[in-house]
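re: the backbone from monday

yeah here it is again, tokenized this time
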């Protein structure tokens, strides 16, 4: 029994004490060159530099200097010009809602983020959160903590396999599970820290405080819409998975709403954001449609439209319903295309969608819409295919 007790105490100390024993180096200067100091930093930076070289040359990077410059401008306003000086910004063609920043200063923003933030204030909230990870060197600390915990788990596995008694083996397994759980708990704690520091950044920059909780509230609504569209159960946001690397969206929305309670209004930058992404929004919408997520996409389009649907969104909504293809969907799609044409009579793609929806629904009038499409776009790449559908 004394031996088992000593073993359990050593295991608990390993789980709770190793991460705390890892020294956190002072933060490097924001401006100018920074050379990694420790062995861990040098190894991690080498990997990150190689990954950035691959990313820089990737076909998925959006080569649009205006959009990239806009993201950088928002970041610099949020965290300060000196702080953002050493960062590199990459916008990548990915419809998922995400952004990330590595310890070496690489900021990656998915195009799906632009589809989900309603204004510049919300974009600033996300960028401030990611910069907080960079400022606090969370990536390095996670690497160090994970390495320490996996070392402990490996040794516990050896002890469990060779333990002299059931009690020893059972205790080793328990400690191993605790070490694995501590990795995810550590990540969640750093996410909360980044949320709070990022909030301080964007609030100090004068952005609207309501942007902080609203992002996560709509993220839950979109996830529920996706589940409903796929006939799945709604998510339980009040429960935390053992393997969750982030707090739940409900928890984040709750503590951020408490943070900004009673604060006045700030700058939203709604029109500035819309202007910045307008030239590329059609491509972002096309990527969203490829996700095959009817419920989530329908919700997202509604959020983008607000009280006024424009021709581009109406056409995209028609594409969404036509892709699902139920008889009632084809009728709805034709209606959306017709509304888009009413707003923009020169929208060739709306005529194409209208013609295909009507023909698929058994309406011969769809041929007239396809003829109008070919007249508006005589060099259409699918001209030969469309002509096979005409009488």
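seq for it, each position gets an aa:
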């Amino acid at each position: 029994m004394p031996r088992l007790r000593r073993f359990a105490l050593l295991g608990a100390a390993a789980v709770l004490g190793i991460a705390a024993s890892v020294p956190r180096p002072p933060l490097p200067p924001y401006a100018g060159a920074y050379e990694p100091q420790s062995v861990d930093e040098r190894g991690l930076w080498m990997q990150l530099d190689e990954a950035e070289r691959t990313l820089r040359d990737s076909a998925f990077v959006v080569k649009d200097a205006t959009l990239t410059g806009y993201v950088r401008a928002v970041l610099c306003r949020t965290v300060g010009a000196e702080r953002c000086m050493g960062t590199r910004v990459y916008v990548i063609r990915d419809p998922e809602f995400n952004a990330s920043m590595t310890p070496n200063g690489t900021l990656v923003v998915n195009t799906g983020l632009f589809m989900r933030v309603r204004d510049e204030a919300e974009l600033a909230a996300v960028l401030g959160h990611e910069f907080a990870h960079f400022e606090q060197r969370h990536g390095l600390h996670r690497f160090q903590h994970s390495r320490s915990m996996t070392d402990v788990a490996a040794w516990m596995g050896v002890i469990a396999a060779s333990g002299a008694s059931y009690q020893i083996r059972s205790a080793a397994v328990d400690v191993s599970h605790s070490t694995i759980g501590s990795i995810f708990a550590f990540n969640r704690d750093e996410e909360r820290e980044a949320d709070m520091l990022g909030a301080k950044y964007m609030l100090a920059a004068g952005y609207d405080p309501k942007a902080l909780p609203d992002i996560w509230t709509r993220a839950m609504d979109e996830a529920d819409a996706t589940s409903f569209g796929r006939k799945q159960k709604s998510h339980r946001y009040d429960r935390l998975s053992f393997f969750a690397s982030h707090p739940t969206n409900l928890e984040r929305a709750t503590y951020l709403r408490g943070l900004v309670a009673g604060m006045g209004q700030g700058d939203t930058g709604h029109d500035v954001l819309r202007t910045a992404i307008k030239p590329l929004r059609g491509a972002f919408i096309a990527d969203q449609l490829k996700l095959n997520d009817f419920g989530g996409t329908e919700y997202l389009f509604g959020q983008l439209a607000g009280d006024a649907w424009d021709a581009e969104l109406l056409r995209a909504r028609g594409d969404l319903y036509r892709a699902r293809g139920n008889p009632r969907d084809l009728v709805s799609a034709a209606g959306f295309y017709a509304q888009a044409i009413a707003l923009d009579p020169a929208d060739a793609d709306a005529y194409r969608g209208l013609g295909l929806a009507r023909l698929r629904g058994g309406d011969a009038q769809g041929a007239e819409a396809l003829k109008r499409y070919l007249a508006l776009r005589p060099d259409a790449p699918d001209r030969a295919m469309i002509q096979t559908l005409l009488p």
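Residues 4-16, 18-23 have pLDDT under 50 and may be disordered. The chain has two domains: 2-260, 309-387.
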